[in-house]
Design a protein that fits this description.
This protein is mostly beta strands. Helices cover about 5% and strands about 40% of the residues. It has helices at about 35-40, 160-165; strands at about 45-55, 55-65, 70, 75-80, 85-90, 105-110, 115-125, 130, 135-150, 155-160. The strands form 2 sheets. Strands 1, 2, 4, 5, 7, 8, 9 and 10 form an 8-stranded mixed beta sheet that branches. A two-stranded antiparallel sheet has the order 3-6. Strand 1 (about 45-55) and strand 2 form a beta hairpin. Keywords: Plasmid. This is Hydroxyquinol 1,2-dioxygenase.
Length: about 170
């Protein structure tokens, strides 16, 4: 007997939440969330934590329109899960970098970013881009989509565990 499987890619326009299917345990012992559902209920570029391992987090962002400029004292990575997104980069002058090199998570750049333009990258579905430390980055999307950021939990990280996790 041949079993056939169909791979379905999620998107902001079409996703299924899915769920934990515990066989011999209680579902309450596990957490499950869905980046598409989170982004569907979030404001553009709100950084909602949906996975955490100590200080390291995965954040779901709804990419829609033009984001504010962000920067960070450490490298971050953006994974595009949906529609095309441009990421514009500027190597910040020292005065606009995060002064505490141990500070975790992204912060907003105060005012317009000053420094040398580094260029931009276009992330299509499945593409990952590095967001180097002490660099200003801005996302630009012509239609709503979903980004996943691999970063550290910081001041802009929003936790909505009760709203985003399966509980029953």
């Amino acid at each position: 007997m041949t079993v056939q499987y169909e791979t379905k890619f999620g998107s902001l326009k079409s996703y299924e939440k899915g769920r934990v299917e515990a066989i011999d345990d209680d579902v309450k012992h596990y957490a499950f969330s869905n980046c598409f559902e989170i982004a569907n209920k979030s404001a553009p570029y709100q950084k909602v934590v949906f996975g955490q391992n100590q200080i390291y987090v995965l954040e779901a962002l709804r990419s829609e329109g033009v984001s504010p400029w962000f920067t960070c004292a450490h490298d971050e990575f953006a994974l595009n899960m949906d529609t095309d997104v441009e990421v514009h980069l500027i190597k910040l002058d020292a005065a606009q970098t995060v002064q505490d090199p141990e500070k975790d998570g992204a912060v907003l750049v105060q005012g317009e970013p000053r420094g040398q333009k580094m260029g931009w990258m276009k992330l299509r579905r499945g593409h990952q881009g590095m967001l180097p430390k002490n660099t200003a980055y801005q996302f630009r999307a012509t239609e709503p989509g979903v980004l996943v950021l691999q970063t550290c939990k910081g001041d802009l990280s929003v936790e909505k565990w009760a709203d985003i996790c399966q509980t029953t």
